[in-house]
Amino acid sequence: MKIYVSVDMEGISGVFSWEQTGRDEKGSEYEKARHLYTQDANAVVEACKENGVERIVVMDGHNGGYNFVIEELHPDGEYIIGHSRRDILPGFDKSFDGVILLGFHAMAGTLCGILDHTQSSKTWFNYFINGKKMGEVGQEAVMAGGLGVPIILVTGDKAVCKEAKQLLGNVETVAVKEGLSRNCARIIAPVKAHQLIREGAKRAIKRIKDFKPYIIKPPIEVRIEFQNTDVADGYERAGWKRVDGRTVCRTVDSALKIVD
């Protein structure tokens, strides 16, 4: 069995502020959060290894792709790090049995979603696939589904777990915190969160045959509404069709092309 783990920072246990994510500058709070990020990933790798997964590929998907504390990584995983990537999901193909979305966040505009955003917290406002509003959970589900691979587990705050259930239905989720606003959270101790993540991964692996890929057949219309017109200007120059002042769209022939 092969499992691909896509990791983001905003939904990691104990993370609730932009300062922790390193979005604006990589200070001391970001350095602390890197350890939380690594420990959540290790909990997934440990659970996978203990429950019959032969190969676990973990992709550092946050910001520049260099957030793990490498010296602390679990020895049973393989890790994809670094920037200037040719693919959105490097190392991923149809040979995987399932995808785990670890530390994900709710889509832009979600009430009480901790650090809610879609793709860019500074420039994107809304994102749609075939007219359906989606966030990053939806994006990864569509891309994985394009290769026939299901999402089996989503971890993050309560808001993203609800979003995942609404979109995917039969998916395991683990809420490691609850948003009281965009920047305020009710959290649990990381050691408890790691236990819950391990248990969630175990449940997902034990019933992996129950999950179905989320498939949207091409052609696929992608529409992005930005926060400002100048960002839309740039996309229009790159070949996207201008819909209005802040919105562009294009049609793609593959689920793997829904995100630039």
UniProtKB/TrEMBL annotation:
<feature type="active site" description="Nucleophile">
    <location>
        <position position="117"/>
    </location>
</feature>
<feature type="binding site">
    <location>
        <position position="8"/>
    </location>
    <ligand>
        <name>Zn(2+) 2</name>
    </ligand>
</feature>
<dbReference type="InterPro" id="IPR036177">
    <property type="entry name" value="Peptidase_M55_sf"/>
</dbReference>
<feature type="binding site">
    <location>
        <position position="105"/>
    </location>
    <ligand>
        <name>Zn(2+) 2</name>
    </ligand>
</feature>
<dbReference type="InterPro" id="IPR027476">
    <property type="entry name" value="DppA_N"/>
</dbReference>
<protein>
    <submittedName>
        <fullName>Aminopeptidase</fullName>
    </submittedName>
</protein>
<feature type="binding site">
    <location>
        <position position="8"/>
    </location>
    <ligand>
        <name>Zn(2+) 1</name>
    </ligand>
</feature>
<dbReference type="Pfam" id="PF04951">
    <property type="entry name" value="Peptidase_M55"/>
</dbReference>
<feature type="binding site">
    <location>
        <position position="10"/>
    </location>
    <ligand>
        <name>Zn(2+) 1</name>
    </ligand>
</feature>
<keyword id="KW-0378">Hydrolase</keyword>
<dbReference type="InterPro" id="IPR007035">
    <property type="entry name" value="Peptidase_M55"/>
</dbReference>
<feature type="binding site">
    <location>
        <position position="136"/>
    </location>
    <ligand>
        <name>Zn(2+) 2</name>
    </ligand>
</feature>
<dbReference type="GO" id="GO:0046872">
    <property type="term" value="F:metal ion binding"/>
</dbReference>
<keyword id="KW-0862">Zinc</keyword>
<feature type="binding site">
    <location>
        <position position="62"/>
    </location>
    <ligand>
        <name>Zn(2+) 2</name>
    </ligand>
</feature>
<keyword id="KW-0479">Metal-binding</keyword>
<keyword id="KW-0645">Protease</keyword>
<dbReference type="GO" id="GO:0004177">
    <property type="term" value="F:aminopeptidase activity"/>
</dbReference>
<keyword id="KW-0031">Aminopeptidase</keyword>
